[in-house]
Every structure is written in C-alpha cells, then in structure tokens.
Amino acid sequence: MKKILIIEDARNIRMALEDDFTFEGYKVETASTGPEGLEKALDLDLDVILLDLMLPELDGLEICKELRRRNIGTPIIMLTAKSQEFDKVLGLELGADDYITKPFSTFELHARVKALLRRSEIRDQQTAATCIQLGPFELDPSKYEFTKKGESVQLTTIEFALMKMLMQHAGHVLKRDDILNSIWGEEVYITSRTVDTHIANLRKKIENDPDQSHWITGIRGVGYKFNTHGSSPDLNQT
Question: Which of 11, 4, 3, 107 is nearest to 56 (CA)?
Fold first, then answer.
C-alpha cells in the first residue's frame, strides 16, 4: 500500500483529498501546518507528498528546501494557485518533482501521482546500475551519491536523474523534449524551461565557474550535452 502525506491548511481540501486517496487504496497521513508537515515528512516512510504552497508558520517552499537539504528524496507535488507562476518555478528549483494548480480535478491529480510513483519505481529499479566516472565526477546509483574530485555534491532527486542521463550520454546532445519525457514523463505538463532551470542549478553545483559552462553545454534551440573532458562554450552554445 502506497503512503501519501497531504500537507494542506484548508480543511475542506485536506479532508476531501484524504477521503479520495483513502478510497483509492492509499494509506493517508495529513498535516494542517508547515511545522507539522515537515515533522511528518521527516519521520514517516512515505511514497509521495502533496505539499500546499501557502501554509501557516512555514510555507511549502521552505519545507521543500529543508527536505532536500536533508537528502529526503520523497517525490513532492506542489499545490499552487494559478497566480503563483513564479513560485511554481522556484518550487521546481528547490527540488519539487511536479506541481498542479488550484482548482484541479481529482482525476488529473491522481494521474500526476501515479506518474510520479512510476518514475520513482523506475529510478529505484535502476539503483543497481554500475558507477559512472567521467573527468572529476563519479555517480554511484547504488548509493545515490555524486562526487566531484572525491567530494560529495548534494543533488536533488531530479538533479541526480538528470546528471545520470547526461553522463550516460556524454558527448551526445540530448534534446529538451527527450529529457522532459525521460525524467518527468510524458504525462506531466511542464515546459522546457523546467529543464533549463535544473541545468542552471546543476551548473552552479559542478562547474568551477557557472558562467563558463565547461562540462554541461547547451546547444541553442536543441538541448544539452555533457562534455567528456570539459570544453569552452562557443557562440552556438548557451
């Protein structure tokens, strides 16, 4: 039985979601405040978290940031209002896996949750894969670790999957749409800007100078490439 945590301060929404997911066969935990939600997210063995953006005492963005800071990789779907476009992007930057805007249909939400669980299961099945070593980097799926020159680099679940994909196809250009479909799945309705956001975050973590992209280079209008020995960007790259 999959376990889901619903962190939502609006009582009517929280109770409706609890009843709905319970009916669908999930074991449901709920929280009505930010601190309560963070505590349960840290303590419970969860399969997915539904996280409202606007919460009393501690908002959803701070909760997401803290969970990822502590290497809690539980998939997170942010619940946002339509007017919070900037916050959606920021939520993805902080490690959320997906978002859905209010008001939403339970059909769409269930589809998002199922897609997220499928991707999570696929990632778990791939944890027995061998290490990938390129230049100063080493990625170990079995330990879920990524290092640069032997020093650990903390990556979110999405960043880790993206880094793995780039390293597995080192030297080849990956199209944005292929990255979106592989990492997020075809069922998730997000734009290529999301890929650009996560690439920017990766560059901050692995490049000596994020403004000089020697390892991850972008091919304008196409996608991104991981360079096997590092290189200098040219006018056709971003």
Answer: 11
What local confidence, expressed as pLDDT, does residue 183 receive?
81
Q: How would you classify the pairing of strands 98-102 and 27-31? A: unpaired
- How far apart, in whole angstroms, are the C-alpha atoms of residue 206 and residue 214? 10
Q: What is the pLDDT of residues 87-117, one digit of tens each?
A: 666 777 778 888 888 888 999 999 989 988 8
Residue range 45-66: mean pLDDT, rounded = 93
Query: What angle do the packed helices 176-183 and 157-168 form, to 10 degrees?
Result: 130
Residue ending a domain, choose from 125, 150, 184: 125
Read off the DSSP letter of residue 237.
Answer: B
Judge if 54 and 151 occupy the same domain: no
Same domain, 111 and 43: yes
